[in-house]
Amino acid sequence: MSREEAATPKLTSIDLIRSAGLVLVLLLAASAAASVLSGRSPFFLFNRQFWLDELISFNMTAVANPIQQIRLLAEGVDLNPPGYYLLMDLWRLVCPLPDEVTVRLFAFLCTVTGTVGTMIALRRFVPASAATAAAIGAVLAHGSVIIQAFDGRYYAPLFAAAGLFAAVLTSPRRSLATEITSGILAASLILIHYFGLFTAVLMTAAYAIGHRRDLLQVKSRLIASCIGIATVLLHIPIIQGQRSAMGDVPTWMGPARYSDLATFFASSYAPWAVFFAAVAGCVAAMLILVFQRDGQLEHSAPEFSLDLITNDALAAFCVTLSMLALPLIVLDFNYMIQPAYAPRYGANTVIGVSAVVALILARTPKPVHCAAVALCFVIGVSTLATSRTRFHPPLFTMERPIEETIAPIREEISAEVPLVAYRYLGYQSWRYGELNADEVYILMPERKREESPLDAHQWQIFDHLAKKGGTPKPISPSKLARMEHFYYLSDGTDRQVNLKEVQDAPFNVQSVPTDDTGLQVAEYIRKK
Questions:
Q1: Is residue 393 domain-resident?
Q2: For 307-329, how does the pLDDT look when each residue is reduced to its tens digit (9 = 90+)?
Q3: Please, are residues 362 and 123 in contact by the beta-carbon 8 Å criterion?
Q4: Are residues 350 and 409 both part of a single domain?
Q5: Domain identity same for 409 and 382
Q6: Would you say residue 20 lies in a domain?
Q7: What distances in angstroms separate CA 113 from CA 25, 162, 200, 486, one per listed residue?
Q8: Which H or E run includes 129?
Q9: Pick from 357, 386, 415: which residue ends a domain?
Q10: Structure confidence at residue 450 (pLDDT)
Q11: Other C-beta atoms within 10 Å of 18: how many?
């Protein structure tokens, strides 16, 4: 076998199908196990109710005209590029399932795609079994990635684009189709999320470094990728419109605390995946040495040496490993431009983590690979079942029996006698209570100069959504206190808002029976 063949074994369609199937089965199994352990149905993560951010995104995808979607984005209805919405427009044409399932299935398949793309890139410089175990194990153990696999937002498609870009960019094939595809994928990263620019630039620069000895041979691919990156200039009008619409509250995040940064880095680098891979590798090495010394084992680990890899393999190594720098770029953005430290912003770092894990597993036998994946599978199930951060609500405790709760008063709710609920519960009431937008108000804290960045940002977004997207309007406690008649729905999360003005106003308040649904409904009628 030649050096080229040894370092970059041929990937057949059967290998590709088998790898995709393995990723799909393991992710499905992890979601089903977490759901059952949490007392839910196996497919709960696909059909659960939307949470607030998903509702905002879904409302945009419900606007049928892509041109109108782009116009609404430029007017500040959402603060991201249009790529996700354009992809969802196409996906909804071929997926006639319920809305929640359609959105989550798209995210799930994007995660599978990103994992397979990462796996292909890893196979350029490590044996196939190690590449498969590393990619799957890293995804299962990476909290942000596995949560986003069941979340109707931008980050699973962003990971899919990153994985595919890594696979195509590092392909040893020299063809016009490959070069064009690399440019399209670089542009797609930015089209899906503005932070995709960081991934595209890091990977392209790393590819050039890996091919520094034969740069002229890959110049067409580098040019195509740079053209794709340059499409960020096309987004400037949308970005300017969004910044103008949001005024002085361009982000919902406050200044980063040290604990925020620690959480961001710990989530991005998925230390458990690396730790278990290292432990598995060390244990395997010790057992092999012991058995070989006793003559009980003739070890035949895959041949692998960084000294023997080709330029293509070296480029693949550099491209995947470059993603370890992504959190540092985001950190720089956090301090120089605006706060940005949510763990999901570093999700593509999983590609760099998988490269580290692949290097650790490269000289170990397949049983060790299986053991490492099994340990990461347990981490993935635990993450799905117990995850709870201020950046994402818990997956299994956000369901609200809205329809059953408001059933006794459904006929009384109208534009004149609306239902009022706090933030997320208000949007849930609109979506799952089968109410019209003018029959629901979203209760928000009073608008004031010293309000938190989150409150200010959500006020702006909710206002834009109501005016442009046909959603319920936000309302402050002071305005609520001046209403004549309304129903108030509560789940106990409204403790952050000061309702003293409402409580002091001259209302007759009467509780509405709710049959132990966990929600409380009260009717407020102004005294004559």
A1: no
A2: 446 788 899 999 999 999 999 99
A3: no
A4: no
A5: no
A6: yes
A7: 13, 10, 17, 48
A8: helix 128-141
A9: 386
A10: 54
A11: 12
Rounded distance, CA 159 to CA 161, Å?
Answer: 5
Indicate whether 262 belongs to any domain. yes
Element (H, E) at 474: strand 473-475
Phi, psi of 507 (to 5 degrees): -115, 145
Instruction: Please tell me whether residues 296 and 438 are part of one structural domain.
Output: no
CB atoms within 10 A of CB 400: 21
* Arithmetic mean of pLDDT, 374-399: 83
Question: What domain range includes position 495?
Answer: 402-526
In terms of Cβ atoms closer than 10 Å to its own Cβ (0-12, 13-18, 19+), residue 526 is: middle
pTM of this structure: 0.90
What are the φ and ψ backbone dihedral angles of 526, each rounded to 5 degrees?
A: -65, 135
Decide the pairing of beta strands 419-422 and 485-490: parallel
Give the pair of three-digit tokens for residue 213.
């000895």
Clarify whether residues 360 and 406 are in a common domain: no
Position with higher pLDDT, 97 vs 304: 97
From CA 485, how far away is CA 199, in angstroms rounded?
A: 52
Same-domain pairing of 415 and 318:
no
Strands 440-443 and 473-475: parallel
What integer best gives the mean pLDDT of the chain?
Answer: 86
CA distance 166 to 79: 26
Q: How many CA atoms lie less than 13 Å away from 365 in the CB half-sphere? A: 12
Report whether 75 contacts 245 (CB < 8 A): yes
What percent of the chain lies above the pLDDT cut of 90?
A: 47
Enumerate the β-bridge partners of residue 440: 419
415 and 297, same domain (yes or no): no
Examine the pLDDT at 177 and tell me if it is beyond 90.
yes
Q: For 295, which DSSP code? A: T
Sheet with 485-490: list strands edge to edge. 473-475, 440-443, 419-422, 485-490, 520-526, 507-512
Q: What domain count does the chain have?
A: 2
d(CA 151, CA 104): 6
H or E stretch at 526? strand 520-526
- The rounded distance, in Å, linking the Cα atoms of 518 and 88 is 34
